[in-house]
Amino acid sequence: MANKEAAFKQIYEANSKKIFHLCYGYTGDDDAANDLLQETFLKVWQNLEKFRNQAMISTWIYRIAVNTCLTYLRSEKRQAKDELTPLIAETKREELSDKNEKVALLYKCISKLEESERIIITLVLDELPYPEIAEVSGISEGNLRVKIYRIKQKLTELYNQYERL
Q1: Locate the RNA polymerase sigma-70 region domain: which residues (predicted)?
Q2: What is the DSSP string of 67-116?
């Protein structure tokens, strides 16, 4: 048991920041992202013995996180949050420095993307290697590069629309 705890602690320390960013990219909300982070690592803990080393452990954890986020989004319906988001974003924007404001705007733009696009761009921002992103997202590396290019174009358009406001 002590071995499992030590291994888990090491896995958590190596992956928790990236998983938080992934969850935040899906939700745009610190509290929800923290909840999803905890839920993801609870599942990692519960299934650690089942991990077969066929893929990198970070890829396995990303898959768990993505599934956790998608389940959350489906069950959440998000109507009430969508109405509150502009007000919350406006309040937070007043509290943030210029750099943080741009990062918050980027995440707001990311939240407007389709689910599959959100995961891919979040993994790119976390600087995951393309082969690993391809494995997590379930598409070929060549197709991934095209998707990333299109997502970046879409994000640039969204970002520029918000900047003009």
Answers
A1: 11-78
A2: HHHHHHHHHH--HHHHHHHHHHHHHHHHHS-HHHHHHHHHHHHHHTS-HH
Condensed to tens digits (0 to 9), the pLDDT of residues 148-157 reads: 999 999 999 9
Q: Give me the number of domains the chain comprises.
A: 2
Query: Are 139 and 147 within 8 A, CB to CB?
Result: yes
Q: Which residue has the higher pLDDT, 95 or 104?
A: 104
The 8-class DSSP code of residue 50 comes to G
Burial of 58 (0-12, 13-18, 19+ CB in 10 A): middle
Q: What pLDDT is attached to residue 113?
A: 85
Contact 154, 117 (CB under 8 A): yes
Residue 70 belongs to domain with CATH number: 1.10.1740.10
Query: 35 in helix, strand or coil?
Result: helix
CATH of the domain at 118: 1.10.10.10
* pTM over 0.70, yes/no: no
CA 31 to chain centre: 14
| % of the chain exceeding 70 in pLDDT | 82
d(CA 44, CA 61): 7
The domain of 1 spans 1-88
Per-residue pLDDT at 76: 67
